[in-house]
Automatic annotation (TrEMBL):
Keyword match Electron transport: no
Classification lineage: Bacteria, Pseudomonadati, Pseudomonadota, Gammaproteobacteria, Alteromonadales
GO terms (BP aspect): DNA integration; DNA recombination
Keyword match Translocase: no
Domain of life: Bacteria
Name of the protein described by the UniProt record: Integrase
InterPro entries: DNA_brk_join_enz, Integrase-like_cat_sf
Keyword terms of this UniProt record: DNA recombination
The organism of origin for this protein: Shewanella septentrionalis
GO MF annotations, alphabetized: DNA binding
Amino acid sequence: MGKSDNNVIKLWQAKHDKDTQRNLAEFILFAQSELTLYKEQGWDAPSWKPNKGQVLVFGFRQTEGNNYSPIDIFKGPYLEFVKAFMRQQMTLKEITSAHLWISMFRNLYLALVAQEDDKVPCIRDVTGQTLKDAVAIIKQSENNLTRRYQIGGKLTSLVKWLLDERIVLTLPTFKNPFPKQVHTSEQLGEEADRFREERCPTMHEMLSLAECFARAEAVQDKYYTSALVLLCFAPGRINELDGLTIHSLQQGDDDGWYIVWHGSKGYPDHRKSIPPLMLDVVKEAFNRLIEIGKPARACAKWAYEHPNEFYKHEGCITQPDHKASQPLSHLQIANAMSIVGFLNKNGVTFQHTKALTNWLNALLDEKTVTYSRLNEVVHQKYKNKSWPNNPDSKRPVWENLLLYRDLELKPKSAAKQFSWTMPTINAFNEQLNKKPKSMSTLWERFNMTQEDGTPIALTTHQFRVWLNTHAKIGGVDDWKIAQWSGRADYRQNSAYDLRTLEQKSRLSTELMVASYDDMPSAIILRKYNLPVTLKSVGIDREGIADFTGIGFCTHNFAQTPCTKAGECVTCKEHVCLTGIPETLEELEQLDKLISEQLDKAIQANGKDVFGADRWVTHHGWKLGHIRTLIAIMKDESLSEGTVIQIPVEHDPSPTRRALEDKKMVTDLEDRCNTKAQIKPQFNANIKKLLGFG
């Protein structure tokens, strides 16, 4: 496929600064002789069928919209250039949106033909006026504004390539003349509201999938529900499931579980953490897929380790000593290839009919058919261009998590016991959305409908939309959502934010105050990731409280640096708020760590280790405060947003200690306006929490 010895794709590079004609001829020759993609379809073919995506038609269908209509192909050197360009582009990366390139080339071709009727079109004849004419044709022929923008982007890329590769030297600077359209999810109006409502799955639809997963018994149902579950624990794209292996589910050093995820669309490979609530479900999904794919993995591994031998499975009826070069009867072929249903009524021979597949009819035309010949047929059908590795995970194909045997997921068909294959995106979408003349959907097999009785219809991408939308409702930062979703540009989050206008306006409603003298509560400010003011936590001073992970620091750094060396949990200038889930989780984790250190200190103290007694005191004091904070935060009688603060007596300043040593008064009369202050809550017994009384 145009690769060098070190497995790096070779690209054509211009050798002549001013001879554009020679550059063009050499580029076309390079694409014809060095690049091998679609070589089996022929260079002179009027169209090429990619491995994925629409057919690339090098011209115009005589009947628009009819895929079987004859093709009026491009003429002259223009045709050769388009084929060379598309072969190189698709060699670099075979994309499903390649038809946009073809649409752009069609519009440019029409502009060239209109430019000079009596001249054979050539890419070297493109001028600034040609580009203007092409833009006008695009504007006239494409009503969809988003599609205009996409085709204009392809034209922009082509112009840059022509200049960079010295094919055309006189083109002006060209920018996409069509603006990028605002995504429907960001628009207002009834149409946008309807889009948001239809695009984001309802809780009923999500719970319906969960019930299908729980009730699945057939292989087909277990496979599809398990794969779809892997799109529900964290946002992912359906094509990214192809990169998962049987070893992708792993446990980290912190005992947390994650999946090694191979990103797409410019996002690097990463780890997707599994929420504890979803862990058992994800593990079960992995186990199901591993079990279903076990026979297919055996077939793929055999094909690699024994490339010249047919995989003799349980269905083969020949004797064990039957040689690979010995002829096979029709009955033996049928059993070996799992196509017994194609035999005549006598159950012994095939008959050439249109009901047989092309490969079988071609095989029967041969004088003798052997296991060696069947092995060639199998390898031609099931080996891809990256064999034996998965192009995403770079691991062997037989480690693919989603691997299964051909026809294994069709209940009325016999699985091909010698095969291995991967699912297509359409296969998943057909399970979620009824298509004409297709098999039954997942919802139909489990008798699942909408709450009003209408059929459920979803796409695999809608699970990603649902997770993103609910993360936004929960107040998660944009950069976190982008990272969680495997999205390279966080600005694309807006296309997945399908909150209703009511949900979006909830922020302004909750932040709304009765007068300028009042302010939103600290818990509301934190909930929406806004700066928490000092006054909102009861400190009569202008400024912002710093979030520490377990609460907020209110220390005035303009006066002195931090005097606690980061020991926030025992600092009187640190406040916590009830109702913030992450702070409670951090405190419980801190409780676990300090408990371990206290146990070690107690053991060391029992062995009379020097200084261990001081560590027992230190860790015990610290642990007492942590457990007190946890107990208060779990107190259901307290309202959400209650401020919790260490009493001054538990964290006396050096001045206070000096005054206490001299038996002097340490309490100061508070003459400040206490209207906005909140009385701290600290009412648990430390000794009792530690088990000392």
